[in-house]
Amino acid sequence: MRQCDPSTYRTFQSPEFFEPDWRSFYVESYKRTVDFSTTTRSEMGIQYGEDAFHTLDIFAPEDASDAPVLIFFHGGGFKEGHPSHYGYLGEEFVKRGAVFISAGYRFEPEHGYPDYVDDGAQVLKWAVDNVGRYGGSPDRIFASGHSAGANIVALLGFRTDWNEKYSLPADVVKGLALASGGYDFSIVDPAYPDQDVRPVQASIVHRIDTIPTSVLVGYGYPEAQRVGQSPDFFRNQGQALVDALAGHDFAPEVVEIPDTDHLRTGIALGDSASPFFTAVSRMIFT
């Protein structure tokens, strides 16, 4: 089990360069997740694979039966984060009758593409094989992600090349809820003009094999994560995905999250007042 000690957690961002206070967020969100775990059926630190980063936390209603399952992959630039920072985002979904899973994955620089996609596939395999024990239905699995997590979810939801390896059907994920992700890495981040460019295979706009029944594309506007970053960077990324899906005669639901920054688009999933929460709830409970 990978340990989480947010009181000493170090982010890779420079506090002079990044506006959101991620360190304080990690400390507070971990406390909220622990509090949530004491009030509902939960199991934290489940090992779904061999690596120390292969952990997940699961939260479920006490009387769940054939319930929808929402799996969340956190952000962090493929370099940081922990499932236990985000478990509390599932509180409102669990109250409404869903099973919520907060999942971790391996990080750069030790692990890059496609390792984290394989990790996501392992999470889906674990869910199919095990959610029944928590009252969830393996036939009602939905996936959501923020930032780097949204990239992972998109690569899982729109591609089929990983399914055979884990003996999973192409439609194992019934719906996707994507928040402020990167989908086309040819769009350069203005705050990082010299950034390393990820392989073209990591840009899902260039490889869409299948499309789930429901797709939500969310982003904030304006939404700047870094000093010097364009306020429409994440909107441009979202629009690139919308345009790619239009080429397959599919129109996703677009959810613009107002008055936000990159941190708050990450927690909009758990905010019952957010239009993103409303759209996701409609998707998984309909």
TrEMBL record:
Source taxonomy: Bacteria, Bacillati, Actinomycetota, Actinomycetes, Mycobacteriales
InterPro entries membership: AB_hydrolase_3, AB_hydrolase_fold, GDXG_lipolytic_enzyme
A molecular function (GO) term: hydrolase activity
Membrane spanning residue stretches: none
Pfam families: Abhydrolase_3
Identification of the protein by name: Putative esterase
Domain Alpha/beta hydrolase fold-3, chain residue ranges per copy: 70-259
Keyword vocabulary terms for this entry: Hydrolase
